[in-house]
Design goal:
Length: 154
């Protein structure tokens, strides 16, 4: 694996929070079009961009500007090559939110475990495990906080 591959994998990984924080759930779905996506240990969608987008659209509260008024921060990114065409990626996530009635605060934190592969020169997700083990005030972020299963991916 070349250094350029590491940068492309990082860009793929960081594309998710940018799309999600813009409220672009279709873009989130496209990122996982070739992936099995798990949330809290349960399969959310299997290679189905529309289902991924719908899952986010159904759960995440958006505001007049079309965004969830969040910032997802990824940290402690570790890319473990699995040959030249595959890698495992581990990272932490912390979500901050501020609305007209909610002061800026962390609302949920956890980690991601991703598997990626290089196809026709482009890196893509093949598997994502989203887990949250730090749960704060989600009343302005999600429609049903009761579905959050405290879990770790790494």
């Amino acid at each position: 694996m070349q250094a350029d591959d590491y940068f492309r994998i990082q860009n793929l990984l960081f594309s998710y929070p940018y799309a999600l924080d813009r409220g672009d759930f279709d873009a989130v779905g496209r990122l996982f079009a070739h992936a099995d996506v798990y949330s809290g240990g349960a399969l959310m969608a299997s290679k189905d961009a529309a289902r991924v987008a719908a899952s986010f659209r159904d759960w995440v509260i958006t505001y007049d500007d079309g965004t969830p008024r969040t910032r997802h921060f990824l940290a402690n990114v570790i890319i473990e090559p699995q040959g030249e065409q595959r890698a495992v990626v581990r990272s932490y996530v912390m979500v901050f939110q501020q609305t007209d009635t909610l002061p800026l605060q962390p609302v949920i934190g956890g980690d991601y475990l991703d598997r990626v592969e290089k196809v026709d020169g482009e890196w893509r997700f093949t598997e994502r495990h989203m887990a949250n083990n730090q749960v704060g005030n989600l009343e302005a972020h999600g429609r049903d906080a009761g579905v959050i299963r405290v879990h770790r991916a790494n």
